[in-house]
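Repro:
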Amino acid sequence: MAYTAQISNRGGRWRLYVVLMDLPVSQWPEHDFGPVASVPTPAERSRVLARFGFVFTGGAGWEWMEYSETLEDDTSPVRLLASVLVRSRDGGPS
């Protein structure tokens, strides 16, 4: 089964989490990289996902998108969000 891992920034802090649709958001695995000046590297993100028990699905890569903090307001600050497909390292639910 494939899941979506996402990384986003709010307030200068990068947060990585895995979306588990069958669980409340409060139970999703989440890691806060703290106040860092740059985007965590792919290797740093991979290590966090491995600690959560997930690996990338075959050929998966991070896809970045931007969105406005305030919908339909092009003067609103832009937020970045990246997603990648992952699976449980052992093939079962994590």
